[in-house]
Amino acid sequence: MGVAIDLSGRRALVTGAGTDGIGRATAMLLARAGARVAVHHLDEGAAAAALAAETGGIALQADLSDVAAAAALPGRAASALGGLDILVSNAGALLRKPLAQTTDAEFARIHAINLGAGFAVAREAAALMGAGGRIVFTSSVNQWMPNPGLVAYGSSKAGLGGLARQLALELAPAGITVNAVAPGTIETDLNRAAREEPGWRDRKLALIPAGRTGLPEDVAGAILFLCSGFADYVTGTTLAVDGGLSLMGQRA
């Protein structure tokens, strides 16, 4: 007989859930497990409202490049849900540019969204959580695997992996776990343009031992585990969800 994950009575905030990707899949899976979910979006109001209606949750808009807006988001979610037990800090931005073409402003913006907002949201969420709280960051295999053109993105994700470890150490005495997932090649809106390039799929499949690219649901399943009681003794780790890509020691 299978053992189901039950999140009944748990209240969750998922950032970056307005697009067709990991955030949306995670919000749906958490809701299916019984959690009430606040779905954050940047400017995908209709999609976020539809997702909230489908999952029985609420939609919240915020521009996470604004640190004040990021810091206010957990409180808004807690007010709407009656508390907060789970944070999935998934919102992120991608920039593909060589080092010489990456401006200071572009570098700062990617770090503000991917790392700065993650810190601010997690800090405020942790203050609202009791024992059993869960914080999960969406990082990337690029935190370990450098890739030309991803100097801003990769360094921000490396920082996110370090942030998860630091927060895990500080929050463990309070009974709050902090982890990250590191997706590999996942088919989302974030990389849609790259996926349309000729030869993209063949190049990627040559690097992935599992022989396929990932789906948002693959990552959402790992996040669900980390948010569940089955992960009570798991903290400060980054779980690769990449079909073995990071085993290859090559560019992602």
What would you say about this model in short?
About 40% of the residues lie in helices and about 15% in strands.
CATH class: Alpha Beta
Radius of gyration: 17 Å
Q: Give the strand line-up of the largest sheet.
A: 3-2-1-4-5-6-7
Q: Helix-strand pattern, N to C?
A: EHEHEHEHEHEHHHE
Number of continuous helical runs: 8
> How far is it from the N-terminal to the C-terminal residue, by CA?
38 Å
Strand content: 5-15%
Q: Please name the CATH architecture.
A: 3-Layer(aba) Sandwich
- Unreliable spans are none
Textual characterization of the structure:
The chain is built from eight helices and seven strands, in the order βαβαβαβαβαβαααβ. 48% of the residues are buried. A seven-stranded parallel β-sheet has the order 3-2-1-4-5-6-7, with helices on both faces. It has helices at 22-32, 45-55, 67-81, 104-128, 151-171, 192-195, 200-205, 216-227, and strands spanning 11-14, 36-41, 58-61, 86-89, 134-138, 177-183, 238-241. The termini are far apart. Helix 1 packs across helix 8 (216-227), helix 3 runs parallel beside helix 4 and helix 4 (104-128) packs parallel to helix 5 (151-171). Strand 4 (86-89), helix 4 and strand 5 form a beta-alpha-beta unit. The chain is globular. It is of the alpha/beta class. It has one domain: NAD(P)-binding Rossmann-like Domain (Rossmann fold, 3-Layer(aba) Sandwich), CATH 3.40.50.720.
